[in-house]
Design brief:
Elements lengths: L13 E4 L2 E7 L1 H18 L7 E5 L4 H8 L7 E8 L1 E2 L2 E2 L5 E3 L9 E9 L3 H12 L4 E9 L12 E5 L5 E2 L15 E4 L6
Parallel strand pairs: 3-4, 3-8, 8-9, 9-10
Antiparallel strand pairs: 1-2, 2-12, 4-7, 5-6, 11-12
Helix pairs in contact: 1-2
The protein binds inosinic acid and magnesium ion.
The site of inosinic acid has 15 residues, from β8, α3 and β11.
Length: 194
């Protein structure tokens, strides 16, 4: 087994990323089971004429998008986008731009694929931009939802897993860009951090 300078991320109960400790929270198989349930809902909500366009939001949703697509049994397309909240060099906190939207969404049934919905700011701004781009129908599919943090009225159509307001990493999600490659989801270990 590969061991990077004393750090071994495989099958660990507890890991350290940068300065913080995280402990195992949701195991890979449970994640896959929950994704299958969401995929089954999507499969039954679309007909073969719909050909929905899955729009996966990078970077966080790359693992989720890959595993979700394997369970989609209807004709569909996938594209990947990045969001920019920068105007010049200052972060506005508001999503200004969709980078890499090369397939036209005009008239399409779009399913946004997100890693996590927290306050809902990102998804609400993205939804607005997709309405402006004249998508015919927009649905939101997220791996994780923090219902106690969510402050928006926009309907979250598909949420595979609901969690409390804790900071998590793994399965695409990062702490300062680290931890995205983890198969399982880890939560900040409150008892072991300063
Ligand atoms: P929102 O705009 O507040 O809904 O936040 C959405 C974005 O914040 C997500 O796409 C993530 O990039 C990031 N985020 C929110 N909660 C977490 C977390 O617990 N761990 C890692 N990233 C998070
Ligand atoms: Mg994200």
């Amino acid at each position: 087994m590969i061991n990077f300078a004393g750090t071994n991320f495989f099958n660990m109960e507890r890991i350290k990323l940068h300065d913080k400790y995280f402990k195992i929270y949701i195991e890979h198989q449970e994640i896959l089971d929950k994704i299958k349930m969401v995929a089954d809902q999507i499969n039954s909500n679309y007909s073969s004429d719909d050909v929905p366009l899955f729009l996966a939001v990078l970077n966080g949703s790359f693992m989720f998008a890959a595993d979700l697509m394997k369970e989609i049994g209807i004709p569909c397309e996938i594209s990947f986008i990045k969001l920019s909240s920068y105007s010049g060099t200052e972060s506005t906190g508001e999503v200004k731009e969709i980078i890499g939207l090369n397939s036209s969404v005009e008239g399409r049934k779009v399913i946004v694929v997100e890693d996590i919905v927290d306050t809902g700011n990102t998804i609400t701004d993205l939804h607005k931009l997709l309405v402006e781009a004249k998508a015919a129908d927009i649905k939101i599919c997220t791996l994780l939802l923090k219902p106690n943090a969510y402050k928006k009225s926009l309907k979250i159509d598909y949420a595979a897993i609901q969690i409390p307001n804790d900071f998590i990493v793994g399965y695409g999600l990062d702490y300062d860009e680290h931890g995205r490659q983890l198969k399982d989801i880890y939560v900040l270990d409150k008892d072991n951090n300063k």
